[in-house]
Amino acid sequence: MSQLRYYIIDVFSSIAYQGNPLAVVDTTCVTLSSTQMKLLARQFNLSETTFICPPADPKATWRLRSFLPNGVEVFGAGHNSLGAWWWIADSGLLGDIAQDTESGRTYFQQLGNNFLPVDLSRSKLGELVISMGQGKPQFLNQHTNHDSLATSLGINACDIGLRYSDVRLDRAMVVTTSPARHLLVPVRSIKVLKSVRFADTEGISKELASTESHNSGIYVFAFAENGCEPKNPRFEARFFSPGMSMEDPATGSAAGPLAAYLWENNALTSVENGVSQIEVLQGIETGRRCLMNLSVEPNKEDSVSITISGTGVLVASGSIMIPSSGLSFSGGLP
Asked: Which residues form the active site (predicted)?
């Protein structure tokens, strides 16, 4: 039976065993069926597995396909694609990447039917930095029952909502920059954030369903106070999806919508050259410290362009057998 090369990348960190682990499978020269990809993703049993595929459209440099362990294909420009691009650049598929931050290169990734820009550069420390454009923000359903929402998270209803930059942020709502429909929930403090519990999977599923956030998750966040607001304000967040087996250490497809949520609520006051920046720290409660950098820039469509940036580190590589084409995938977590 033939084999494929795979790589485990810790994403949104340059320190091994600190980032959000992603399995990247090199299928640049091999064609797999969707079922074979699902079987491999279930075998890795990480939050996501991404396959590097030749583009189906000349507008793209590479096409990426990403799967959860339960077989659901996802199309967000988050850790699943940022980690894949980190490997693409580090492996030499794109040639030499400039050593300075002023000479980055732009490529395009195909995620489903979307074609999104990817900028590659190196930091002053020589780290590969991946910056990805996300889709147009959409502000969808609002969750108005704070009592039931708080109960599902193991906190009090009065804990939902926070004050930042003289703005009261008390709306729990679905914001998206991709097909992933995550429910964003502001909470009063980091202390409250740490007390959130994701054990009530059934209850959280019901709350997500009430806002039509199926096959997605809940993103709870707070302002990371440090005595004074930095130039790039920092927020801390936690994410859980009933479709995953554990809390997600870093969720780029939710961090981008968080930046859009702050912009929509006039909470972004630090602007340089028309661009606002925030930092999102995630994964602390899972023992993994992941840092995501987001930029928000108004565009000509009366909306904003969201860019997420971060780095990665290789922690493992090896070979894996290609599943037989005769096997089927029954779904569900292993």
From this structure: 48
